[in-house]
Amino acid sequence: MRVKLEQWEKNLYAVWVGQFLALMGANLVFPFIPFFIGDLGIEDKSSQALWTGVSSGATGAMLFVSSPIWGSLADRFGRKAMLLRAYAGAMVTITLQALVQSLWQLIALRALQGMFVGTIPAATALVAAGTPPRRVAYALGLVQMAVFTSQTVGPVVGGLMAQAVGFRWTFALGGLMYVVSFVLCWFFVKEDFQRPGPGQRVSYVGNLRTVLQTPTMLLLITVMFLVSSAAVFVRPVVPLLVESFTTASVETKSGLVFAAIALPSAIAAVGSGRIAMRSGYRNALVVATFGAGVTYAMVGFADALLPLMALMAVVGIFSGAMIPMVNALIGASAPAGKQGSAFGLVGSAQALSFAIAPLLGGVTADRLGIHAGFPIIGAMLVAVAGLIALTVREPAALAPE
């Protein structure tokens, strides 16, 4: 029996495949960026680490600045157009990184990559705007699943490719994967978008003001910043924590710990939508945030590798549910026709968290020890859960069945 998909489902699955391939392409290069910088003439290991951080910071800083701009343009010209623009920008900038001959060329292109990409907020806005309200959590969970799975698979494939064909060809492969994503979006995603007429057009600042004046919107964007910060706050110390338990194959075992987070997160990102449809999205977000906070606090007391992996897997379950729930609440709360601007601000908040939280996590580990960050981030998430319970109301479009 042939199943006939509705257009929103066709769009969703095309975006899911496109996002998985695109983000896997972006994640291919992370395992070898420090070594590539070494090939560009930076021989000192500490300097390689420093310039790796600078290159990542350049991408995050430009993404922070550009996300609200692209989001506002999406509300004027269409969300599909902005997703195609993001794929094209990444295709060009990542491919050109295969040709750089100096460190500054690499950093400039990494900054341009941050300025012209932003596929996650673009894809989220496109799916949120075109999905029936009752299915939005499932749809956004599937998009988030692409993020988690690409973060798991991409670095592994990238490491193998770098060993097999070299750094530069791996950059080129990353660019090629964005080409495939562009083609999928161009041919298979259909958007029923009506451009605002001359009298309906609002300035960039006006769009953002309209979004931020919506009740609870600023609070939800702040919640997104905080829940996105949690994982990257502790990420720098996870390998050090693993090393405190074992000195053999630390890199491999650290990878297993990260996989223990990512795989349950990918499953929870989709499965949590069904629970939210019955219990309410706000209630599901409160439980997920509180559960993540309590489990993070317990990680600080792990005394061996297996308990660490088990607790991080539980963290992954709760964390995988948090971001789709926040996105669903933001999508339902955004003013009509302003989803692009809303998710542009969300992308900016996430970029800011990626830039700030690892630095704060590193400083915390340096001053208070490698275990201290986990109970700190746990207490923060418990407080966020209380804030959500007291101040966020369920949008009428998402009221439980």
How many separate domains? 2
Let me know the average pLDDT.
84
> What is the CATH topology of the largest domain?
Growth Hormone, Chain: A
**How many strand elements?**
0
Plain-language structure description:
- This protein is mostly helical and 401 residues long.
- The protein has two domains: 1-188, MFS general substrate transporter like domains (Growth Hormone, Chain: A, Up-down Bundle), CATH 1.20.1250; 206-393, MFS general substrate transporter like domains (Growth Hormone, Chain: A, Up-down Bundle), CATH 1.20.1250.20.
- The protein contains 16 helices and no strands.
- The chain has helices at residues 7-27, 33-39, 45-77, 79-97, 103-116, 119-130, 136-165, 167-188, 204-212, 217-234, 238-245, 250-279, 281-299, 305-333, 339-368, 373-391.
- The longest helix has 33 residues, at 45-77.
- The mean pLDDT is 84.
List the helices and strands and how they pair.
Blueprint: H1 7-27, H2 33-39, H3 45-77, H4 79-97, H5 103-116, H6 119-130, H7 136-165, H8 167-188, H9 204-212, H10 217-234, H11 238-245, H12 250-279, H13 281-299, H14 305-333, H15 339-368, H16 373-391
Properties at a glance:
401 residues; Growth Hormone, Chain: A; 2 domains; 0% strand
